[in-house]
Design brief:
Length: 250
């Protein structure tokens, strides 16, 4: 891997994870020393971050990490709904191809099963550390299954900003379980080769994800939470499994 690629991936990851907060100055000298490379590849990495919208030049300060706000969510989700709905529809259509279809169906069937299992585990309060690795796997398979590199590249760029927004959302085990169930529905629809169902499942998931970012709770989540509360009341001797830190679930 080129030094500039290594620097770009490291800085991009730290920005998305929140380790490099908005307003942080990405000084060439400091960052080149920290990352163990020369200033030329670092400049290339910073240029790519600026192009991504994750950093921006600031007069008298050099390059700084850009701000992120939940107020941007509706605009980002307008684009996300359009792109991801198209992607899921195309992926479902491609499962009918004689050559690649069987393998695609099996891939998405397997992913659906893993999300089904995760739904049960998260509802029980299981630590969701690996959940975003699973959603990233679904994203990667979806991008590949569209057969459209332009669409896939657009989605990858959009996810950089969505990842930062997710860090601003409140923790919610209930939303995590609901999100896993919604991802399972998308994967099941693609595996079944049903483009309209895949698109509809995607729209439902994204509307619920946006509502969660804004602090609203879809009715399906309210029912899930009520069921969990009832179970907790019955089983009063059980230690609360959700007392540890949970990852955000949009």
């Amino acid at each position: 891997m080129r030094a500039s690629d290594r620097a770009y991936r490291a800085l991009r990851g730290e920005i998305i994870d929140g380790a490099l907060t908005p307003g942080t100055v990405l000084g060439e000298v400091e960052q080149s020393v920290r990352l163990g490379l020369s200033r030329t590849p670092l400049r290339e990495a910073l240029s790519r971050l600026v192009a991504d919208g994750l950093a921006a030049p600031a007069t008298g300060r050099g390059v700084v990490v850009t701000a992120v706000s939940l107020a941007e969510a509706p605009k980002l989700f307008d684009l996300r709904i359009a792109l991801e709905t198209l992607a899921s529809r195309r992926a479902a259509e491609h499962t009918a191809h004689p050559a690649d279809g069987p393998a695609l169906r099996e891939t998405f069937r397997s992913l659906a099963g893993r999300f089904d299992l995760a739904t049960v585990e998260f509802a029980a309060g299981t630590d969701p550390t690996g959940y975003y690795a699973l959603t990233a796997e679904l994203d990667a398979e979806l991008d590949s299954a569209t057969g459209n590199s332009y669409l896939a590249e657009s989605l990858r760029g959009l996810r950089l900003h969505l990842g930062r927004l997710r860090r601003l959302a409140r923790n919610s085990p209930t939303r995590l379980a609901a999100s896993s169930r919604e991802h399972a529905a998308i994967a099941h629809a693609i595996a079944a080769g049903n483009p309209e169902l895949a698109a509809a499942a995607t729209v439902i998931h994204l509307h619920h994800a946006l509502a969660h970012l804004h602090g609203d709770r879809p009715e399906s989540e309210v029912r899930t939470a009520d069921t969990a509360d009832t179970a907790d009341t019955i089983n009063t001797d059980t230690t609360d499994p959700t007392s540890t830190s949970q990852e955000r679930s949009a």
